[in-house]
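Per your request, structure below.
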């Protein structure tokens, strides 16, 4: 309750009473020891009087009497209970003294608190041993007091002793239920790292925080579960799926005019990467993951800041005395520094720690959609990687870089998410720039990542994920042909992992491909979903160029692969594309042939299939179904991210609905739909754009 004065008085009274009780018990124990000789004489006489005739003839009398005397002495010492009560009372006094010390520490009476802790430590060690957790807790509390007194050497000594005890118990324990013990170890390491930082011993401070990461990462890896290399390369981020769009005929006409790129700005103002749908068929994160990530962000940030301070400290040419004091402290944490060096394969251990923590921070900032912060962290990781391997630089095609890469050992089969390669870092930078709608820079990063990845693997899942995101950036740059090429390459690799043959594999090893193919249904579904998403993206890019039967067939395949998917948004996207294909097919039928024309999977025919009216009706039905799932309500706040994500698609839905009504001769319904489309387009990108102009043009034609 914060009433420290009252608590101090009550604890002081408790200590005084327990001390008095101890003094009485000790005096009585001494009196008992003084009476032992007379008691032994009396008992000896009585025993000898009754047992002298029973003494065995073979045993000398002296030996017999000594044996009896020893037995009587032993029994008399066992009879009093004061010794047991004395030990219990000393433990109680130790606890009272510990609480008194905590109270004195709270009111900043540090010297008095240290005295109480010291006495409590002596009593506790006598009865529970120097390696007990209670003794470790007292050492920790004494370290805190020395820390507050800025007596850092003594604080380090106490923290180290506490850490030794707690780590021994943690390492010797097995099974679950060690969360409290693990938390105490983490707290000790954090406090130790803080003291080292205060004394400008950055090396040991970094070593402490890296040890914290090692412990926390074990729990983090358990909570986040397993992931294949496609997701690992993707930084465990969901797949960013472009929203369906529509390109007007006048925009397609501009595409055919050399040097006329004005239509691209209108397309890009309507279609932004931040509006992508995040396709993630995996399960929800486990309980405690969010809190653990926040803690990890703090620790990674501490490590990055410490290493930057360490560099600045060395640049400032610190004094010789400061250097000597730092070196004297290094020996006290040699075990932590040794473990840090063992965890780094090669190069400067602190530069490697900077690279790992910066990369981890970049990944977590991406999850939080803090893209500017993510870019800064990932660039720091890349610079640290260059320091570790100077030949590995942005000039990835140089001869030195080639020798560096070809001289390395063969890569591990699974991506190391905590020790990234250049391909992973460049991929992360590509994702960051794409999220900021800087797709030109994103493409450069993705292509650089591909060059690194292809030097260590062939047709791997890492390459497939990088190809997918590179194609997405090309799509937003309106380079649909290049986007199609990369998505087709991605689909080829994913299909290879779906149905491996004896000649398939990674780098000639079929086991790697077989590992990607799990017999479990969930793994098969995940593979199908990925291929379905890539097919959907191919349909987007191909339809931006023109509608044809091949594109329609790809859409049917995508719907088949994603049929069991629970993601209603992606299913709605494909319904919209199906409605677009139907309405386009209906618009291509001359008026005089509408009564006899039908459409089938093979295309427009005169035989079996949907009639022209059924085509129009089916289109309207599909568009209404999409509205139920993906609709932006203009009356809602624009700050609702999920609602805003559907804004462009809502405009396209209204426009395509108006087109179908116009085809069927429902002028009033067509005008109403066109008016809604124009309003959506104005909200999305203002009045001065091709989308609004095209809708107003169609409205003028209908009115005329």
């Amino acid at each position: 309750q914060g009433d420290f004065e009252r608590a101090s008085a009550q604890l002081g009274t408790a200590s005084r009473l327990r001390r008095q009780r101890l003094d009485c018990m000790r005096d009585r124990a001494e009196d008992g020891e003084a009476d032992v000789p007379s008691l032994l004489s009396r008992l000896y006489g009585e025993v000898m009087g009754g047992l002298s005739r029973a003494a065995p003839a073979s045993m000398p009398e002296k030996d017999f009497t000594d044996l009896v005397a020893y037995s009587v002495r032993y029994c008399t010492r066992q009879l009093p209970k004061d010794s047991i009560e004395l030990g219990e009372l000393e433990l109680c006094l130790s606890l009272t003294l510990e609480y008194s010390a905590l109270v004195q520490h709270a009111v900043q009476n540090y010297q008095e608190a240290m005295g109480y802790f010291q006495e409590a430590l002596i009593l506790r060690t006598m009865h529970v041993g120097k390696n007990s957790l209670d003794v470790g807790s007292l050492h920790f509390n004494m370290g805190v007091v020395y820390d507050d007194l800025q007596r850092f050497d003594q604080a380090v000594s106490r923290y180290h002793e506490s850490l030794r005890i707690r780590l021994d118990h943690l390492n010797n324990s097995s099974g679950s239920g060690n969360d409290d013990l693990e938390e105490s170890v983490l707290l000790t390491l954090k406090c130790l790292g803080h003291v080292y930082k205060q004394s400008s011993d950055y090396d040991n401070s970094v070593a402490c925080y890296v040890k914290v990461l090692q412990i926390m990462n074990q729990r983090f890896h358990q909570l986040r579960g397993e992931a294949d290399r496609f997701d690992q390369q993707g930084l465990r981020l969901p797949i960013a799926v472009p929203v369906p769009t529509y390109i007007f005929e006048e925009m397609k006409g501009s595409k055919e005019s050399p040097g006329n790129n004005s239509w691209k700005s209108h397309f890009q103002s309507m279609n932004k990467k931040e509006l992508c749908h995040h396709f993630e068929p995996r399960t929800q994160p486990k309980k405690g993951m969010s809190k653990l990530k926040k803690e990890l962000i703090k620790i990674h940030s501490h490590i990055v800041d410490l290493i930057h301070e360490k560099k600045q400290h060395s640049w400032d040419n610190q004094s010789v005395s400061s250097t000597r004091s730092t070196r004297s402290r290094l020996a006290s944490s040699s075990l932590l520094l040794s473990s840090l060096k063992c965890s780094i394969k090669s190069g400067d251990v602190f530069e490697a720690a900077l690279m790992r923590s910066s990369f981890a921070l970049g990944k977590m900032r991406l999850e939080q959609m803090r893209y500017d912060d993510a870019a800064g962290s990932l660039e720091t990781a890349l610079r640290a990687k260059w320091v570790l391997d100077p030949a590995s630089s942005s000039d990835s095609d140089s001869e030195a870089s080639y020798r560096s890469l070809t001289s390395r050992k063969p890569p591990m089969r699974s991506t190391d998410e905590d020790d990234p390669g250049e391909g992973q870092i460049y991929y992360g930078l590509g994702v960051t720039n794409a999220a900021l709608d800087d797709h030109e820079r994103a493409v450069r990063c993705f292509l650089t990542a591909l060059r690194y990845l292809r030097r260590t693997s062939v047709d791997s899942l890492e390459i497939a994920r990088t190809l997918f995101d590179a194609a997405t950036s090309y799509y937003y740059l309106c380079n649909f042909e290049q986007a199609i090429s990369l998505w087709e390459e991605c689909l080829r690799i994913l299909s290879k992992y779906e149905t491996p043959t004896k000649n398939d594999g990674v780098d000639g090893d079929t086991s790697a491909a077989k590992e990607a193919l799990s017999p479990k249904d969930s793994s098969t579904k995940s593979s199908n979903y990925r291929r379905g998403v890539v097919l959907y993206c191919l349909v987007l890019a191909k339809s931006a160029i023109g509608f044809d039967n091949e594109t329609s067939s790809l859409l049917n395949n995508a719907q088949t692969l994603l049929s069991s998917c629970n993601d209603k948004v992606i299913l709605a996207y494909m319904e919209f594309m199906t409605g677009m294909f139907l309405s386009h097919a209906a618009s291509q039928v001359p008026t005089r042939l509408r009564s006899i024309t039908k459409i089938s999977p093979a295309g427009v025919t005169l035989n079996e299939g949907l009639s022209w009216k059924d085509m129009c009706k089916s289109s309207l039905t599909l568009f209404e179904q999409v509205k139920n799932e993906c609709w932006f309500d203009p009356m809602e706040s624009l700050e609702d991210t999920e609602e805003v994500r559907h804004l462009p698609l809502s405009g396209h839905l209204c426009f395509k609905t108006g087109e179908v009504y116009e085809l069927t001769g429902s002028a009033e319904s067509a005008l109403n739909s066109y008016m809604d489309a124009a309003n959506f387009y104005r909200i999305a990108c203002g009045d001065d754009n091709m989308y609004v102009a095209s809708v107003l043009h169609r409205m003028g034609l209908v009115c005329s």
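Strands lie at 239-241, 277-279, 598-600, 603-605, 610-611.

Regards,
D.
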